[in-house]
C-alpha cells in the first residue's frame, strides 16, 4: 500500500468515526463583479463550486479524498460542508469560504484541529 493509499484510507476512516484531524487552513472570498463594469458580459451573481453548489454560506474546499457533502466543525468558523476543490488543496489542507475579503485576510493561515462529523449531506 502506497503512502497516498494510506492517506485516502485514513480520511475514509476519519469520516466514518467522526474524529479530529489537524489541517492547515486558508481562506478565499468571492467578490461578484459590480454592476456597471466595463465588461460586455452580464455580472455573475454567484460563483459555483467544483461540485456545482453555489459558493454561499459555510463551504470549504478539501482534498478529493474527502467526499462532497462531508460535514466539518472548524473552530472559529462553525459547522460547514465540503463542496469545493482546489489545485493546491491536497493532503491536510482546507480552504474556507469567508463572507468578506477582510475576514479572509484576518483569518490568514491557521493550523486547526477540525472535527469530521459522522453525518453527511445527501
Labels describing this entry:
single chain, 122 residues, alpha/beta, Barwin-like endoglucanases, six-stranded mixed barrel, globular
Shape: globular
Number of domains: 1
**Strand neighbour order, sheet with most strands:** 1-5-2-4-3-6
State which percent range the strand residues make up: 25-35%
Number of helical runs? 2
Unreliable segments of 5+ consecutive residues: none
> Any idea what the CATH superfamily is called?
RlpA-like domain
Task: Give a verbal description of the structure.
The chain has 122 residues and is an alpha/beta fold. It has a single domain, classed as Beta Barrel (Barwin-like endoglucanases), CATH 2.40.40. Helix content is 18%, strand content 33%. The protein contains 2 helices and 6 strands. It has helices spanning 3-17, 101-107, and strands spanning 20-28, 59-61, 70-74, 78-84, 93-97, 110-120. The chain has a 6-stranded mixed β-barrel. A hairpin with a 3-residue loop joins strand 3 (70-74) and strand 4 (78-84). The chain starts with a helix and ends with a strand. The model has no long low-confidence stretch (mean pLDDT 83).
How would you summarize this macromolecular structure in one to three sentences?
The protein is of the alpha/beta class and 122 residues long. It contains two helices and six strands.
Topology:
Layout: H1 3-17, E1 20-28, E2 59-61, E3 70-74, E4 78-84, E5 93-97, H2 101-107, E6 110-120
Parallel strand pairs: 1-5, 2-4
Antiparallel strand pairs: 1-6, 2-5, 3-4, 3-6
Amino acid at each position: 500500500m502506497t503512502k497516498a493509499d494510506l492517506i485516502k484510507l485514513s480520511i475514509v476512516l476519519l469520516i466514518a468515526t467522526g474524529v479530529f484531524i489537524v489541517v492547515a487552513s486558508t481562506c478565499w472570498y468571492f467578490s461578484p463583479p459590480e454592476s456597471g463594469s466595463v465588461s460586455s458580459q452580464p455580472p455573475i451573481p454567484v460563483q459555483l463550486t467544483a461540485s456545482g453548489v453555489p459558493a454561499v454560506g459555510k463551504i470549504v474546499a478539501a482534498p478529493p479524498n474527502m467526499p462532497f457533502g462531508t460535514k466539518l466543525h472548524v473552530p472559529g468558523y462553525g459547522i460547514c460542508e465540503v463542496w469545493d476543490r482546489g489545485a493546491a488543496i491536497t493532503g491536510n489542507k482546507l480552504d474556507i469560504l469567508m463572507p468578506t475579503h477582510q475576514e479572509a485576510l484576518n483569518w490568514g493561515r491557521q493550523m486547526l484541529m477540525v472535527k469530521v462529523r459522522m453525518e453527511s449531506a445527501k
